[in-house]
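Amino Acid Chain and Its Fold in Token Form
===========================================
Purpose: to set a sequence beside its fold so the mapping can be learned.
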Amino acid sequence: MIDHMGIAVSNIERSRTFYEAALGALGMSVQMEATPEQTESGGTALGFGVPGEKIFWIADEERPGEGTHVAFRADTRAQVDAFHARGLEAGGRDNGTPGLRPHYGPNYYAAFVYDPDGANIEAVCYAAE
């Protein structure tokens, strides 16, 4: 079970705009902001989640890494569709339009968007409809 995870971003404000839009479609928002004075490495960090939970962090104190992939669970296929649309509207790049991916499972409905730094961000729903 994952408690929380984080990725490095090159521009915290640009990435904040992207993630607020894309993750907002999944019911997530910024739950905590740590200033450079509050972090170990001197950068800004934003914790996304739902009230009481900060499961996904972005921070600008390290260099973004290639090959980063994060998949967020969606409750409905409509949320996956909204994640993709809002992610693109907020500056992301398409990496796979919403749809079934039967090679991953019979009800694996997902969409993929590259964030502003090229991380592959996914929303997936396992519901039959």
